[in-house]
Write a structure and sequence with these properties.
This protein is of the alpha/beta class. The chain has helices at about 5-15, 20-35, 75-85, 105-115, 130-140, 155-160, 165-175, 195-210, 235-245, 255-260, 265-270, 285-290, 305-315; strands spanning about 35-45, 90-95, 120-125, 145, 180-190, 210-215, 275-280, 320. The protein is about 40% helix and about 15% strand. Strands 1, 2, 3, 4, 5, 6, 7 and 8 form an 8-stranded parallel beta sheet that branches. The structure holds 5'-deoxyadenosine.
């Protein structure tokens, strides 16, 4: 029987001085619902051009210090094939909101990759008209990732000069309607955020019916208006993941990269606190280093070897890499 989760109940849990029991419950629910598998997904960041001005993001269009790149259609398809050959079965195709990549171009890429590989494809290219989402779905896209970032309309407005929470949520509902496996998510530590906001974030995921949710701490980027805001709490991010597991028992919940950046230990720990997914960049060098949403080091690596190492790390946690 599903719990009746309310903001009050979630807030009471978030305020607990010791979260050990909630983590254990989240781990038990994860074991029962999605099992002991950890899904490894590849992410290809094919363009860092972005028309938006999100105040937390290093790729926002007002940041002149970014080396902008746009991979060619051929490079994109080849990278997807490389991920397939390295053993990946899901590819997240992510970019900024780059007007060059119209729905028609993206649809062509989806078709080309589907013809050459058996990859499940997640698109993560921001807000589009519903007709474009529908077209991409027709071309074969399986999932869409679009984080709501914060469920507080005032905080959303302060951080996004180019959009509204209402528009963002409308996109998510369109995606659901069109039959996408739909992913959202939010950041921990945004200015003005309270425990109450985080409960609203989690309840919004449930209200949309999200199949996936990426939750991670805010990391300040030196070239953004939020450069002096302190980093979000890795502990609070993990608490939010654990509660998301309780509220959305079957969801796919990644151990986010930002969580690992904030706290190296946390990326392993969070798999015992509700998480069941991990993403790895397959973006080729040098582009990988230019996709700097927040500062993080991504040293050059071999896609196949990195995947092998990750599988070993997951096995050490007593889980099954897939
Ligand atoms: N810190 C942490 N996460 C960030 N994102 C964007 N900027 C930051 C930041 N400074 C996240 C957002 C976005 C995803 C691609 O990265 O949640 O949806």
């Amino acid at each position: 029987m599903a719990h009746e989760w309310t903001a009050e109940k979630l807030a009471a849990l978030l305020a607990l001085p010791d979260f050990t029991e909630v983590y254990a419950r989240a781990d038990a629910v994860r074991h029962e619902t999605v099992g002991d598998v950890v899904h490894i997904r590849a992410i290809l960041e094919f363009s860092n051009h972005c028309r938006r001005q999100c105040r937390y993001c290093g790729l926002n269009s007002r940041n002149p210090h970014v080396t902008r790149y746009r991979m060619s259609e051929r490079e994109i398809v080849e990278s997807a094939e490389g991920a397939w050959k390295a053993g990946y079965r899901t590819l997240v195709m992510q970019s900024g909101e780059d007007p060059y990549f119209t729905a028609e171009r993206l649809g062509g890429l989806v078709r080309a990759i589907k013809e050459r590989t058996g990859l499940a494809l997640t698109i993560s290219c921001g807000e589009m008209p519903e007709a474009d989402y529908a077209y991409l779905r027709e071309c074969g896209a399986d999932r869409y990732l679009l984080k709501h970032e914060t469920a507080d309309p005032a905080i959303y407005a302060a951080l996004h000069p180019c959009g509204t929470l209402e528009a963002r949520v409308a996109c998510l509902r369109s995606l659901k309607r069109l039959g996408y496996e739909t992913g959202s998510g939010f950041m921990i530590g945004l200015p003005g955020q309270t425990v109450r906001t985080i409960t609203q974030d989690i309840l919004l995921l449930a209200d949309i019916g999200c199949d996936m949710a990426g939750i991670g701490p805010f990391i300040p980027h030196p070239d953004t208006p939020l450069k002096d805001v302190p980093e979000g709490s890795a502990e609070m991010a993990q608490r939010a993941v654990a509660l998301a597991r309780l509220v959305l028992p079957k969801a796919n919940l990644p151990a986010t990269t930002s969580l690992a950046v904030a706290d190296k230990e946390a990326r392993g720990q969070v798999f015992a606190r509700g998480a069941n997914v991990i993403m790895r960049k397959v973006t080729p060098d040098p582009y990988k280093g230019y996709y700097e949403i927040y500062p993080a080091a991504f040293p050059p690596t071999d896609v196949a070897r990195e995947r092998q190492e990750l599988e070993e790390q997951i096995a050490t946690l007593g889980r099954i890499p897939v």
